[in-house]
Amino acid sequence: MEFIRQTILPLYGITDENASIAPLGNGHINQTFLVRWSTGQLVLQQINTTVFTEPDVLIDNAAKVSHHLIQKSTLGEYQLDVISPVVLKDGRLSVDLGDRGYWRAISYLANSHTIEVVTNTEQAEMAASAFGHFAFALSDLDANSLVDVIPNFLNLPQRIEQLKQAIAEDNVGRLEHCKPWADFVLSQQALFAELEQIESQLPLRVCHNDTKINNMLFDKRDMSSMAVIDIDTCMKGYLMYDFGDMVRAFCSPEEEDSTALDKVVARPEIIAAATQAYTDQLAAILTPLEKRSLWLGIKVMALMLGSRFLTDHLNGDVYFGIHREGHNLDRAANQLTVYKSLVAQEAQLMTLFE
Which of 39, 48, 148, 270 has the smallest set of CB atoms within 10 Å of its CB? Predict the structure, then answer.
């Protein structure tokens, strides 16, 4: 913390020796801190440059998205608050200190609150409506104006190939005790044909690409929707992935690293509420095929995230931050259990997307 206080904060003109610096949130990738001083507050992040190998691209993309949303807000066409970059004293949006880290700051919204698990349909509707509103507001931003900050980020075939490589190499000797999960993932490759058939017919959109419930801020005074945050992975893509990631994150009553697998289930009432709220916000632009693709997106995202957690476990936990031994395997088992629950209810749930 002293390094931040003595080296980073002065770059933002913050010289208050009594400034408080505290970890914020529980993201897997970047290190995030809430900084408060006598005359203000901001969110400070050290970007993980192992994951984001071109952090300048991340900063530029986020600035474009933020600027577009602010314009929409000014026109009365965006009702949520906007997280904006905070400039350094020299006008830059970030600072690269080499082996001492790549740093940036963004605005902090007072009275904001995040949740980790959707507990009722009202929360699902509110958050899904906000993510849909976010997507609609960005629908007239040229998707190709954003650079892919992580190429092939949502490429299921490539993620499966990465899992196969991790299985073949078994660098840290973990395959034996998680082989049943690995075999299960590899048995689901029929999804590839569905994806290949539908993706080529879908319009490219600006997508958030990380629509977890904790990337939605609620106003803790009345728990109304406040802002969509963590726009670092905003890139061109297909709405089925944003929607799918959102629903797979909303639908279970357990957190995504819960080991109580007997309680991990895809709740149909939550999925129905989220689907209605999301598609209502996008009704003016959503094509019939896009709507049908949303169901595939839920399945793909649950399977893909489970595969990614499993791959990282096999590789020795080099991507996602962990807080305990076997944490990524717990996450993988959790998400693959969500996937199994989705598939078991497919006949019923598919009717939501007709």
Answer: 39
